[in-house]
Amino acid sequence: MKIKNFAALLLALAMMFSLCACGSQSAPAQDTPQPSEAQESAAPSEAPSEITVTDMIGRELTVTPGSYTRVVCIGAGALRMYSYIGDVSLLCGVEDIDNLTLEERPKMFDSVARPYVLAYGDVFSTLPSCGVGGPNAQAAEAEKILSCNPDIVISEYEDVEKEDALQEQLGVPVVTLKSGPNGVFDDAFSQSMTLLGQIFGEEEKAEALVSFIAAETAEIAERTASIADEDKPAVYVCGLGNWGTTNHLMTSQTYASFEVANIRNVVTDLGANGVQPIEEEKFVALGADMDIIVMDAAAVKNIKPLYQEDPTMFDSCKAWQTGEVYLEMAYNAYYTNYEIALINTWFIAKSVYPDLFADVDITARTNEITPAFRLLESTSQNPTAELRAAILSLDGDEPAAVVRRYDDTDLTTLAVKAAADLGPLFLDGLADGIRILDDRFTEAQLRDVELMILQAARVRFSHTEYIACPSCGRTLYDIEGTLAQIKARTSHLKNLKIGVMGCIVNGPGEMADADYGYVGAAPGRITLYKGRTVVERNIPQEEALDRLIALIRENGDWQEPE
Q: Which pTM was predicted?
């Protein structure tokens, strides 16, 4: 049996934003909001006018389009939907589930990529908490929201009384969005985008997105509209996300992608709609009718050990025996990744009806849906060469983000492998973003490795960097021990380079691009540098570290450790 992976070579999960790497990144809102350059240049001669809008649960609200500078998003899907239309730099708080730097937060979706978090994780990590968030959070946390001092709240809590009470307590508009049961294909989603466009003065952006989704949906439906029922293969979808990753028994009889693409669902007689588990006996009974299986990629890690324990569980599945098993990109994590759901629908339609979609290149289609970034994943034994060739073959000048999955138990080993595999692509100026995957480590741990590689390649600086000589006969002090002491006092600083050199002969030249220098001048004596300029000469070594920190502080580069 073979699984036909959507992304064996080119997983074109393209996002409208960068991953953790380079490219333009919005900065978080400050305590004193400042207008953006765009706002200043386009400032109207008159103050914005108030309008009345109706939110997605029927509440009438008075809002002032384009006037908001401090935004909070709460509830499943709210921040994701806002990121499609709104300006992330206006956020003044974020739920804990979306701040990957926090150890204590809901982690049920960490194994599934969330594009909006990958794109803006740096911004989110700098913002105060406006609540825990996650599907287990059943109500907004008013006190935390108040502490963020928002002037508008975008919510996905669909309870009129609670939203009214929250709005009264906060004293600012609380606007409720809704995506509906069919996500990106639902009228509620389009209406939510239109509503966001009205509130934030982005009507054109919202209309363009809504029109694009409608056109994509219509094309898929039109291509498959004339297929007779008897010519439709029976398809089983499984592994669908439901408050975390699942297995082969989690399915739905009303799968939106199937509805759009006129695909016959093998599951038809469940008592309710929506994502739900079926009994193993029912799965076995349906097996003979399964012409094709579509499996959510996030479920593989759960299905694999089950299969290893009992490989007979798929014996009854026709599709399993014929190899007609397809992996769609994981897309359901703390609500639907709408862009991925749309991409998956194209992929499923082409997999089920290859003749009708023979002219459709899934990678190209993906790049149309999410045009700004391309994510390239290599699964070969020579990822550097494969990714290099893939990037050079791309058309256009959109940035390319590279992905590599590992299965290591030691973080240092993982870091060395990833640096060897992906680092050369940044050194050569080919790659623009990076994503490392390994189910054995947390998002925070993997992010540290990603940032380390980017810094080593001189692409992005996110932490203190130390330039130390290897020592020789001219070294005038214990380099190793001194470097450890300096690191212990300064490693929390960001975007600084500190040179630690053994002697005055070669030291200044070797640390020429350092921000600060600590250089042996004589036995027991140290000279401190700011850039290439000597600041203090021949100071006692026992005082040198404190004076180095004082120098950093004097130049405005010091931050107190958290």
A: 0.62
